[in-house]
Specification:
Length: 157
């Protein structure tokens, strides 16, 4: 059944609630949805529940796409030459909206053997590790390119 705003749909057999349109935080940030379940008995029995749905604000400039946005485009780190590896260097964070999604992180420097040899990215949480101590005489600057991909999620409530 549809509600009066036509923003939600309840599958009357399964009880799954889905959105049928965009929820706009600026127009309404909280929805109180009254759910009534009833049987076909005689007399009919019913129960009522209220679902309070809070909408999270997403900045208008963020497109809801498969291209997550890091909190910064560039990060600069300094590493001591003789540091004992392995060392956790940094956890790359995404903008607030994407914190709710399951993500996969990848180092894209496929052709850079020094990056592949010295650095590892945890694909589940975006943490970059130094796994081998760098040799400053061989190379003193590393540019590491990282990509995050959003995993698909169900739109069911």
């Amino acid at each position: 059944k549809r509600n009066q705003l036509n923003l939600f749909f309840i599958d009357s057999k399964e009880g799954v609630i889905t959105t049928t349109g965009k929820l706009d935080y600026e127009n309404q940030s909280v929805y109180n949805i009254t759910i009534i379940a009833s049987d076909l008995g005689s007399p009919s029995m019913s129960a009522t529940a209220i679902l309070m749905l809070t909408v999270t604000d997403v900045p208008d400039e963020i497109e809801l796409s498969d291209k997550p946005v890091f909190i910064s485009r560039y990060f600069e780190l300094e590493i001591e030459e003789n540091v004992h590896a392995p060392v956790e260097l940094i956890t790359l964070n995404l903008t607030e909206y994407y914190e709710t999604f399951k993500m996969r992180y990848f180092i894209l420097n496929e052709n850079d053997t020094e990056v592949k040899r010295n650095f590892v990215m945890d694909p589940r949480n975006g943490t970059l590790y130094l796994v081998r101590s760098p040799d400053r005489e061989m190379r003193d600057v590393y540019e590491i390119i990282v990509r995050a991909e959003r995993q698909k999620i169900s739109r069911e409530l």
